[in-house]
Here is the input.
Amino acid sequence: MKGSVSNKRIFWLIVTLIAFILAGILAGCIYYFRTDNRMTSKDFNNQLAFDGIQLGMTEERLIQLWGEGEHIEGFGGHIKKYKSKQTAIGIAGDSDNDFYKGVTLLETSNKQYAIYGVHVGDSVKATYAKLAKFGYKPDFSGIYMNGEFVISLQGKETIETIQIWFNDKDLRDRVY
Here is the structure.
């Protein structure tokens, strides 16, 4: 009798241990596959060739690098327009944004700047393969997403304008 109680206890201990291990594996898989932001801003900025400008950098740093620019007030933030550089840069004004008071949008028609080696003037079709190598998936025409990072290519056969922005997962349902 004593041996069978001990065996039952060991059996249930093993079953419980296996259940906890499986629950941990399941939780890890769910986290891995449901995590929306697999790419970090550092990873993204390492691929950004934009004359020193990076997503998430402060407005103060932007002004140090490029000057004041033309200030255009907007909803959820403002834009700094740099006509001589053919570029507009968005600054987040929503305190819930992960990049609050930092650069969240870059828009350019300047061939000098690039993301993942993609420049204004490049073939739109050839660009998709470049972006796909870095995990970007097309959302709809000309929009490519990887977690919270979005690249929009405007132009029919060749890229005329590149827009890059940080689409904060916590603000996607917010309307300004």
In short: Residues 118 and 127 are 7 Å apart (CA to CA).
